[in-house]
Amino acid sequence: MDQTLSRIRAATQQLNDVQTELYRRALAPNPQDTHAFLDEPASLDILSGFKAAVDELRRFLWFYIDELAKRAGTDPDLMIQGYRLRRATEMLRVLSDEPMIAACPTLQDTQSFLEQVITVVEDRLTKVKGA
User: Mind listing the pLDDT tens digit for each residue in 18-31?
Assistant: First the structure.
């Protein structure tokens, strides 16, 4: 495999790990403890720089995705739709983490997975607003 593709694969895994960690911190039962890293003096610069780098890379990667879609004879919009479905699935996976569901007593009354996700998010928002 090309060295650039190997680096992209490794960076993708690292970004997914960071995303999972940030989701878990955001949805933790005690956000004051899990968000202590935001109180560090360099956190704004680090997070702003990280966001800028990700945004710029994202814009640049669209050119590659469009080119690959054209070469494969595929509609770029269909490729993007598949990407969005994978992202939504990953977010739902993080939100459906067992300890989080166990900590939300109203989930026993819900019927569907989507209702469970909505309940978890609403429960977290209520806890954050109450803190």
Answer: 988 887 787 777 76
